Amino acid sequence: MEILTKEDYLNGQLILIDKPLGWSSFQAVNKLKWAIRKKFGLKRIKIGHAGTLDPLATGLLIICTGKFTKKIQEYQGQSKEYTGTITLGGTTPSFDLETEINERFPTAHITEDLITRTTSQFIGEIEQAPPVFSAIKKDGKRLYEYAREGRDVPIQKRKVLIHSFEITDVRLPEVDFRISCSKGTYIRSIAHDFGKALDSGGHLSKLRRTKIGDFTVNIAQDPSDLSERILQ
After folding, report:
1. Is the pLDDT at 181 greater than 60, yes or no?
2. What is the DSSP string of the chain?
3. CA 150, CA 205: separation in Å to the nearest integer?
4. Given the DSSP bridges, would you call strands 14-19 and 57-65 parallel, antiparallel or unpaired?
5. pTM of the full predicted structure?
6. For residue 83, what pLDDT band results from cuts at 50, 70 and 90?
7. CB within 8 A of 209, min separation 6: which ones?
8. pLDDT band at 107 (very low <50, low <70, confident <90, very high)
9. Cβ neighbours around 130 below 10 Å, total
10. Cα separation, 222 vs 21, whole angstroms
11. Residues 6 or more apart from 47 whose CB is under 8 A from it?
12. What is the pLDDT of residue 135?
């Protein structure tokens, strides 16, 4: 690993992180922020990430320091690629494993051929409703705050672009996929809507972000390992 100076971080660095399961994106940023400040005796440093990953997701997180924080919006706007697993036959309020299954549906009619054919409904420009358990703001409040209070609020659908939706393995009720999509796409919503399109139910049981633009997770670093190296 290249040894970076205080000036390097202040002038701007782009850091590719492989976010571990259970970490929030904010935790990953704070881990590096603490290490950089401690190493160089800095009271403050600009640092931020270019696109949130849920705690239950793993994978690529772009972190920018110093003057590179001005590029965050540019990176946020790039296409993204995800791999993961949809579990059919049940829905959850959060569309993933953050909440427990609230409804169960039949899956006996679902075949591998039907699964593959149904992906075509989700390719191109589609409309999707974000999950109620999301950080989107409505009337100054996060949607997940309304959801945790048990309040129903109308959620406006938004247009997103799905470049590709490939089924990589079928082990019913689990279906593995690879999706390439525009910014603002909720893979949890695709999992939920995909289950409905199969006349069943579905929720996201695993998610990993593998690409943002031309950046891949293959060259990303574990935040704990990187912070230790910074402190050496």
Report:
1. yes
2. -----HHHHHH--EEEEEEPTT--HHHHHHHHHHHHHHHHT-S---EEESS---TTEEEEEEEEEGGGGGGHHHHHTS-EEEEEEEEESEE-TTSSTTS---EE---TT--HHHHHHHGGGGSEEEEEPPPSSS--EETTEEHHHHHHTT-------EEEEEEEEEEEEEETTEEEEEEEE-TT--HHHHHHHHHHHTTS-EEEEEEEEEEETTEEGGG-B-HHHHHHHHH-
3. 23
4. antiparallel
5. 0.92
6. very high
7. 53, 57, 58, 59, 60, 61, 80, 81, 82, 217
8. very high
9. 20
10. 11
11. 29, 32, 33, 36, 63, 64, 65, 66, 69
12. 62
Specify the pLDDT at position 155: 72
Give the active site residue among 8, 18, 54, 113.
54
Question: Are 62 and 216 spatial neighbours (Cβ–Cβ below 8 Å)?
Answer: no
Residue 96 annotated in active site: no
The one-letter code for the residue type at 178 is R
CA distance 37 to 45: 7
Cα–Cα dist 61/207, whole Å: 13
Could you report how far apart the first and last alpha carbons of the chain are, in Å?
12
Is the pLDDT assigned to residue 18 strictly greater than 90? yes
CA distance 173 to 93: 19
Distance CA 97, CA 137 (A): 22
List residues bridging with 202 in a β-sheet.
88
Q: Whats the size of the chain, residue-wise?
A: 232
Of the candidates 185, 180, 175, which has an alpha carbon nearest to the alpha carbon of residue 164? 180
